[in-house]
Design goal:
This protein has 182 residues and is mainly alpha-helical. It has 8 helices and 2 strands; from the N terminus they run H-H-H-H-H-H-H-E-E-H.
Length: 182
């Protein structure tokens, strides 16, 4: 046996768990190898030190109760609680989360769509106005419904003249046609 084999068997040897032929082999090696014998003496002293200070600890009644509770079989649940378990499945959780998200984002998305539609309508009218102005024709008459970024104020205006000169009407939108200082 090598020193490595002996050290691997040290714990089993000290605990008396080696088969008789293996134990005899370890004892022969310890008689012939002073390094392994010194290591075993050190392990024997450490084991004795721990064993001398070891005391039995009695668990508290509270610890026993918590252990009993942890290993006790589960109590049958009432039908109402089992019904609620249906809603604890992952697919229903995701569906509920999706519905909540749709309810939370729905009004904001609706407002954004309305704003973009009114902005697109205004931009189309602006293009028609500029085209008519450049051609020397009167501005096209048009009713616009404008939803500014703050949709609490919807604006409906009938335009026959330059609609971009009125700050109080279109103050919520940028006005690329208004001269500076007006």
């Amino acid at each position: 046996m090598t020193c490595r084999d002996i050290l691997e068997d040290a714990s089993a040897f000290l605990d008396g768990q080696l088969p008789p032929e293996r134990r005899a082999s370890v004892e022969r090696h310890l008689e012939a190898c002073p390094e392994c014998a010194a290591e075993f003496d050190s392990l024997t002293q450490a084991t004795g030190f721990v064993a001398a200070r070891l005391r039995e600890i009695e668990p508290s009644p509270a610890l026993w109760r918590s252990i009993e509770t942890a290993i006790a079989p589960p109590r049958p649940r009432p039908a109402s609680a089992r019904l609620l378990d249906l809603f604890s499945s992952h697919s229903l959780r995701f569906a509920a989360a999706g519905a909540a998200l749709a309810l939370a984002l729905g009004p904001g998305m609706y407002s954004l769509v309305q704003y973009r539609q009114s902005r697109a309508s205004l931009e189309r009218y602006m293009a028609q106005y500029v085209q008519a102005r450049d051609a020397g024709q009167p501005a096209p008459a048009r009713t616009l419904q404008l939803v500014p970024p703050k949709p609490e104020r919807v604006i409906r205006v009938q335009f026959t003249e330059n609609p971009f000169a009125e700050d109080d009407i279109l103050g919520a939108f940028e006005n690329p046609f208004q001269a500076e200082g007006h």
